[in-house]
Write a structure and sequence with these properties.
By secondary structure, this protein is an alpha/beta fold. It has a single domain, classed as Rossmann fold (3-Layer(aba) Sandwich). About 40% of the residues lie in helices and about 15% in strands. The protein has helices at about 15-30, 45-50, 65-80, 105-130, 155-180, 200, 210-215, 225-240; strands at about 10, 30-35, 55-60, 85, 135-145, 180-190, 250. Helix 3 packs parallel to helix 4. It is globular, with a radius of gyration of 18 Å. The structure holds NADP nicotinamide-adenine-dinucleotide phosphate. NADP nicotinamide-adenine-dinucleotide phosphate (NAP) binds near residues 16, 38, 89, 143 and 193.
């Protein structure tokens, strides 16, 4: 557990779910980790657990001035930034029962989802490149989704925003390479990973187990993925084991994209 010793990392949306798991694993691997979130610092259990190798800062990824402030704090306190994980993301589903399909979704909801999922990643990449430029090295990891690779009729804005994250990751990778910088940028594409993001879809009713089973019935491995499985991929991409990996995309989907439910038997 020493694959990230000496590295300074920043994770967005770090207070729960995939961001929390990545942060915990990065600390365990020896990194100094900036855990950022809308309410970072309020979760005392997380603060006690991760200990002195973690810093906490509020960072709303939609706000450019917050990126400027937090990146300045990172450089002032730790002198460098080696890894950024653009993890914060929303489905838009926690606004209650509103349409997300391409025919009925509101422009307001479409923009809201893109503002967090896409504008947030754009700003993160922009300020990370600037922060990493002095050392000419670094790793930017963007958490896209399986939904960024296929269409999702009931989640148009989410799918569109995640597809744009996939593409922007490649643009960032090429820009940095063109600039002669060893700053790598890759995207991770999880399918169903059991986190609080799924709660509005699973509910707490007696049919919860049935709903869970239905959501993974087309997944070859027949289960939800675990946050630790995404964290393991992030460690590899953040580490010095991946210096030739940039502009690439990594699926963590239990085999879902390997074929199609309609494949002839
Ligand atoms: P989650 O449990 O809902 O956690 C997301 C975190 O992001 C929360 O802590 C949330 O804070 C924070 N956040 C939301 N808006 C933010 C903003 N504007 N600025 C800063 N932080 C913000 O989600 P998750 O399942 O761990 O997902 C993490 C990432 O993986 C997302 O990008 C998601 O799209 C992607 N992903 C997840 C799955 C999955 O199955 N779970 C699959 C594919 C991709 P609050 O709690 O304060 O709102």
């Amino acid at each position: 557990m020493s694959r990230l010793i000496g590295k300074v990392a920043l994770v967005t949306g770090a207070s729960r779910g995939i961001g929390e798991a990545i942060s915990r694993r990065f600390v365990a691997e020896g990194a100094t980790v900036w855990l950022t979130d809308l309410d970072a610092g309020d979760d005392c259990t997380l603060m006690e657990d991760v200990g002195s190798a973690a810093r906490f800062a509020r960072l709303d990824v939609r706000e450019e001035d917050e990126w400027e402030r937090v990146i300045a704090s990172v450089l002032e306190r730790d002198g460098r930034l080696d890894v950024l994980v653009n993890n914060a993301g929303i489905t838009g589903f926690d606004d209650g029962f509103v349409a997300h399909d391409p025919e009925n979704a509101s422009l307001e909801n479409w923009r809201k989802v893109h503002r967090t999922n896409l504008d947030g990643v754009f700003l993160g990449c922009k300020y990370a490149i600037r922060a990493m430029r002095p050392t000419k090295t670094g790793s930017i990891i963007n958490i896209s989704s399986r939904s960024g690779l296929v269409g999702i009729p009931a989640a148009a804005a989410y799918a569109s925003s995640k597809a744009a994250v996939r593409n922007h990751s490649k643009t960032v990778a090429l820009w940095c390479a063109q600039q002669g910088l060893a700053i790598r940028c890759n995207s991770i594409h999880p399918a169903a990973i059991l986190t609080p993001m799924w709660e509005p879809m699973l509910g707490t009713g007696p049919d919860r187990d049935e709903r869970m089973a239905a959501l993974v019935k087309d997944t070859p491995l027949q289960r939800f993925g675990r946050v630790e499985e995404v964290a393991a991929m992030a460690v590899f991409l953040a580490s010095d084991e991946a210096p030739y990996v940039t502009g690439s995309e990594f699926n963590i989907d239990g085999g879902l994209l390997a074929g199609s439910a309609a494949t002839p038997g």
